[in-house]
Design a protein that fits this description.
With 279 residues, the protein is mainly alpha-helical. The chain has one domain: MetI-like fold. It is 77% helix and 0% strand. The two termini are 40 Å apart.
């Protein structure tokens, strides 16, 4: 047993360096001012007061949540039917379809987003096709449509795979029992399939919403720098403005929001799992 514990020590040390130490530095920068020396550094809440007192940052935060919610809803609407269809296929066909869904994720996300920028440009492929029908050119880039499209494309596989895992592990005897009791296909889906698949939906929501609300390079590439989300504000504070204290404060606020969101989804996941077990 001790030998197994000792094998975990390198990973603990690695986590301390890459996770705990950076988070500690963010907390220090968020709650301290910029002094000329270490001795002049003092505790302050000015960074947080600046964020909550400036309506511009609140508007950016609301826009970030709106984009993340819309991305999550679209991923559910598109992902659930696809996952349901895959789960009802033959085993070999399921493997092929799962590979089809996951293959795009093998390519770097930055490269995939750049590809969409080329497609959505005024001289891109999509506008070229529309011009054949006498439509356009349409301004796709630097709009919320382009940002949501890029996020849905990048995060949809995570939703599909989570829902598919729940549906593929579902005991088919429940559906057969519902059919024997007189339920039609719609009733069986609403009363049996959907409740049992909710844990997968909630897991998918977690994997889509959290990275969407804090994403910065997708709105930067597809929004053209004109569609700013909270991730872009944090990036600008660190890399452009050099205001590490304010950037750390915003990062800490977002970390708290993400932790609260994770706790809510965890609670919902636990509730739906317990309800599913009662069926």
């Amino acid at each position: 047993m001790k030998s197994f514990r000792s094998m975990a020590y390198p990973y603990i040390a690695w986590s301390m360096v890459l996770i705990v130490l950076p988070m500690l530095l963010i907390v220090i920068y968020a709650f301290t001012n910029e002094g000329n020396s270490v001795l002049n550094i003092r505790f302050t809440l000015e960074n947080f007061a600046r964020f909550f007192s400036d309506r511009v940052f609140f508007d950016v935060l609301k826009r970030s949540f709106f984009i993340a919610v819309m991305t999550t809803l679209i991923c559910i609407i598109l992902g659930y039917p696809l996952a349901y269809i895959i789960a009802r296929m033959k085993p070999k066909s399921q493997i092929i379809m799962v590979l089809t869904v996951t293959i795009p994720t093998w390519i770097n996300m930055l490269v995939r987003t750049y590809a969409w920028r080329g497609l959505l440009e005024k001289t891109g492929l999509i506008n070229s096709i529309l011009s054949l029908a006498g439509i356009g050119p349409i301004q796709f880039l630097e709009t919320s449509f382009a940002v949501i499209l890029g996020m849905v494309y990048n995060f949809l596989p995570f939703m599909v795979l989570q829902i598919y895992n729940s549906l593929s592990k579902m005991d088919r005897s429940y559906i057969e029992a519902a059919s024997d009791l007189g339920a039609d296909k719609v009733q069986a889906f609403l009363r049996v399939t959907l409740p049992l698949s909710l844990p997968g939906v909630i897991s998918g929501i977690t994997l889509v919403f959290l990275p969407a609300v804090s994403s910065f390079f997708i709105p930067k590439l597809l929004g053209g720098g004109k569609y700013v989300l909270i991730g872009n504000v944090i990036e600008n504070q660190f890399l452009t403005s050099g205001d590490w204290g304010f950037g750390s404060a915003i990062s800490l606020i977002m970390a708290i929001v993400i932790i609260i969101s994770m706790q809510i989804t965890k609670r919902l996941d636990r509730d739906t799992s317990s309800e599913g077990g009662k069926l």
